């Protein structure tokens, strides 16, 4: 492979010279050059490796998310486990393409042990949070339980 020089956006690789590179090419641009590029576009570029393969799931903020979206992998996995198809998931999450749904499911299936352990850990953290909240304000939860009972008796 011939090393390339980048000078003011022009790549020179041996004899070959390319005119302007795509703005903020993810692997060649300096960090200072990418600040004016929208965050969503930078995320999309980071999602592709040098071979052009895409990653459909990213690990951020302590969780797993469909790349470039606010859709958690958790929500797709739980629905997938309940028997929903990729097509129905794509309809349930209109922000996702069918390709993203299949990619996320493939990621889950390829990393099933890790994701299942993560989901069990998250369920435990949720249960602990729920118990802590009940201990902080027991009167509120008593009122909720009373309201549920009252609604059930009026419906019966």
Describe, in plain words, how this protein is organized in 3D.
The structure is a single chain. The N and C termini lie far apart (76 Å). A hairpin with a 2-residue loop joins strand 2 and strand 3 (16-18). It is elongated, with a radius of gyration of 24 Å. It has three domains: 1-49, no CATH class; 54-110, Arc Repressor Mutant, subunit A (Orthogonal Bundle); 126-155. The protein contains six helices and five strands, in the order βββαββααααα. The strands form two sheets. Strands 1-2-3 form a three-stranded antiparallel beta sheet, with no helix packed on it. A two-stranded antiparallel sheet has the order 4-5. Helices cover 51% and strands 12% of the residues. The longest helix has 25 residues, at 112-136. The protein is α+β, with helices and mostly antiparallel strands and 156 residues long. Mean pLDDT is 78; it is low at 1-33. The chain has helices at 39-46, 73-81, 86-92, 98-110, 112-136, 138-155, and strands at 4-7, 10-13, 16-18, 57-60, 63-66.
Primary descriptors:
two-stranded antiparallel sheet, three-stranded antiparallel β-sheet, disordered N terminus, Arc Repressor Mutant, subunit A, 3 domains, 156 residues, alpha+beta, 6 helices
Structural Rg: 24 Å
CATH domain class of the largest domain:
Mainly Alpha
What structural class is derived from the secondary structure elements? alpha+beta
Order of helices and strands: EEEHEEHHHHH
The separation of the N and C termini measures 76 Å
Helicity range of the residues? 40-55%
CATH architectural label of the largest domain: Orthogonal Bundle
Instruction: Give the number of DSSP strands.
Output: 5
- How is the CATH topology of the largest domain named? Arc Repressor Mutant, subunit A
Task: Report the total helices.
Answer: 6
Q: Low-confidence stretches at least 5 residues in length (pLDDT < 50)?
A: 1-33
How many structural domains?
3
Shape: elongated
Mean pLDDT: 78
Please give the oligomerization state of what you see. Answer: single chain
Biggest sheet strand order reads 1-2-3
**Could you tell me the strand content as a percent range?**
5-15%
Largest sheet, in brief, is:
3 strands, antiparallel
